Amino acid sequence: MNGRDNKVTDIHSNTHTSTKIFYGIGGGVYAIKEAAYAIFILLFYTQVLGLSGTVTGAIMAISLIWDGISDPLIGSWSDRLRSRYGRRHPFMVYSTLPIAIGFIGLFAPPDSVVDSSTLLACWLLFWSLWVRTFITGFTIPHLALSAELTSDYHGRSQLMAMRLGSMFLVGLLLPALALTMIFDATGDLMGTRHHTSLPDLTGERYTLPLLRDFFDDIRQTFRNRMFRTMLGFEVASAIGWGCYTTLNILVATYVFEFSSDEVAVILAVPGLLAIVLAGAMLKPLSERWQKPQLLRLSVWGMLFNSLWLLPLKLADMLPANGSPLLLPLVLLSSTVFMFFFFLRAINAMSLVADITDQHEIEAGERKEGGFFAVMTFVVKIASLVGPLYGGIVLDVIGMTNKDLPGEVAEPALTGLMWASLSMGILTLVIALRYAYTFKFSKEQMEAIQVTLHAQRTAN
Q: Does the pLDDT at position 392 exceed 70?
């Protein structure tokens, strides 16, 4: 087994709660970046600083391409790292300070830069590349760590629920706080270190992986049929999520004409409710249905939820803007969407961890970093459609940084709603198609664990 230590610490539903909490906190690092790029970058650089929507979207897409390229590099490197602190923690620890510096640069361009569109575009590109590189250095090893912490079928879902719960809390509360305070850092995983399976260093000398090693790791992941199916599912989901988050704040601000405080409530409350609901319902749902079935349930839930709010607004059948009934309806729609999206994400990432065990049987080595890196690489490349699509939509419908809520032409508002609605439905239908082709039962997973246990015991 390539010298891998066979002593794996397992987390079950009723033990090691502190470890799950420490692990979950790390999800907030990724969420800070997602909140910045999904909600504020397009709004800040176009509506506040005056940069073209198409240019801003293109720069965000370019930085996201690099973000995706760096994922398998970091993932493969962390799979091969040999250190007294394990394979994952050194990357996470040394990424924290550069991440903080990057966000300061991203949101604090000097006046001399703001005065020039060319300089402002270059400034956005530089700091976007900086932030995304060091975020990758933290999040890919953090994701890979989940497959090392537990091999339990339900335990992995619980671990992912903690991580995604932290992500959603930070990703929703941070924008809400920013909206209320501005418009008028990082997680520590040392609490998981003593649970990490350390490689056996006896007789081994660590060397940096070569470029061919990275490409070989990528090829290995794509040989797995179930992983390819999961990639297709996640690509469709990523495109839909990117478009939803990019356009959602614009719809809330310009279509429904909510105040910044109301938008903050829309960003924060549905996520909080969804986290509580998903946490309470994850165990009974998991006992009734297996992970592939829960994937399909979550997509159906999001699809049906998308078919009432904006269609009723387009048909002029919702309460008028300013009505006390409008905000609760929007909150209801957002809460239902977030619950099913949260449920989808938990089970998708848990299934990727299961697939890494299947790969260990087939290839004789563990590549958690490689699998999670390829997954995030493909998802990030797909999610660049969101900001690029949003920037183009703004230019096509004719919205500028001079437009204020209540003053935007009706055709522009209609175009914004149709742009959000059509892309959301299309991506959900595609995701549903992949969800129905994914087959990986609990019984298969348990058989894999029995085989792995026998192999590790023999070694």
A: yes
Q: How far apart are the first and last CA of the chain?
A: 8
pLDDT over threshold 50, residue 192: no
Determine the Cα–Cα distance for residues 332 and 141; give it in Å rounded to an integer.
Answer: 36
Q: In sequence order, which residues have a C-beta less than 8 Å from that of residue 33 and are 6 or more positions away?
A: 131, 132, 135
Could you tell me the CA-to-CA distances from 187 to 95, 141, 148, 418 in Å, in that order? Answer: 10, 13, 19, 38
User: Is the model more confident about 351 or about 143?
Assistant: 351
C-beta separation of 81 from 72 below 8 A: no
Rg (CA), the chain: 22
Q: 56-60, 113-117, 175-179, 220-224 — which is least confidently predicted? A: 175-179
- Please spell the DSSP secondary structure of 108-134, one letter per residue: ---HHHHT-HHHHHHHHHHHHHHHHHH
Dist. CA 142–CA 189, nearest whole Å:
8
What's the predicted TM-score (pTM) here? 0.66
Quick one: which of 238, 224, 232 has its CA closest to 379? 238
Angle among Cα 337, 292, 446 to the nearest 5 degrees reads: 140
| pLDDT for 311 | 94
For residue 315, which amino acid is it? A
Query: How far apart are alpha carbons 75 and 137 in whole angstroms?
Result: 9
Question: DSSP letters of 33-74?
Answer: HHHIIIIIHHIIIIIIS---HHHHHHHHHHHHHHHHHHHHHH
Take residue 153 and report the two structure tokens written for it.
């079928």
The DSSP call for residue 316 is T
